[in-house]
Amino acid sequence: KQFGLHQSQLDTISTTYFCAGVLSWVPGMILDKKGPRFTIVLGGSLMGTALTLYWAICRKIIHIHSTGTVIFFLCLFGVITFFGSACVTGASFATLSRNHPTCSGTAVGVAKGWVGLCGGMYTQIWTGFVGKPDDSARTLDFILMAAALSFGVNLALSPLMSVSTDTVKLTDTLRPHHFQICYGILVLMGV
User: pTM for this one?
Assistant: First the structure.
């Protein structure tokens, strides 16, 4: 609305984001070369930076007068955000699989459930504090909150990201009731 974009231009911005999917193998290479801590910090930093710049353009803190340039940068920052997200999810899921080889599917499933519920929680927290999204520029501040959370949470959790060399010990201590507890927590969170 602020930039007078047509629906086709908005569609371009929203779909270009997914074109980064052709690069989704790159975070795996980074993970294999640099490890999970580096990869998750890189991903969180890319997401936080790209979303902050996206927000600054949308709020007109960064003034761009050409519609074509606005579209280009919003598409670019969407692709960078997607790539950062691929770094974070790749590092998280690969680390779980490597640390829990006998129950990697279950471990990744619990993590995916947690990610999905956290996305819903962010939206509910925003709505609770700010109100329902509308046409005002203030609604765009959700992007800034997402940027801060992307950077802050990933940076804070990065020290926990490591691949154990003692998988036998991890496998022996990881019992089905651990996952039953996690599933129960996820169900309660969903309710």
Answer: 0.77
